[in-house]
């Protein structure tokens, strides 16, 4: 009877899960933004005709990982909120930041990546590809704005969780 009434979330250290998901996600984003994309640009791969489909595959896969991490972060924050393990001053802010993170991941996955990839497709083989269009530049600007927002929100949430875990010990 005791096994039926036991809460399985009591066995999971959500503080650790939350910090691991945030650390993995933010480090993966920084690796992609600061290493992979600049190296693809420097080698000239972004100007190749098949890059739009390859880029969609790379970013589409990473966007799914981002959605998983964002869901873990939101779940962790809600569990910590429910258990009253978040400091009073960070409760509403933590929920808001985790909601911002999942919204950014959804925007990347279902709006930005398909739009950028569709603008990058070369449908006419006989037409000389032009440089980046105005719409593509606007989408890239929006991407970097959302990326900055994601990194600031994620780093703030990670810092709060780390401080909270140090104070619990």
TrEMBL record:
Spans traversing the lipid bilayer: 12-41, 61-81, 93-111, 142-162
Keywords: Membrane, Transmembrane, Transmembrane helix
Presence of the UniProt keyword Membrane in the record: yes
Stated name of the protein: DUF4149 domain-containing protein
Source species: Lusitaniella coriacea LEGE 07157
Biological classification of the source: Bacteria, Bacillati, Cyanobacteriota, Cyanophyceae, Spirulinales
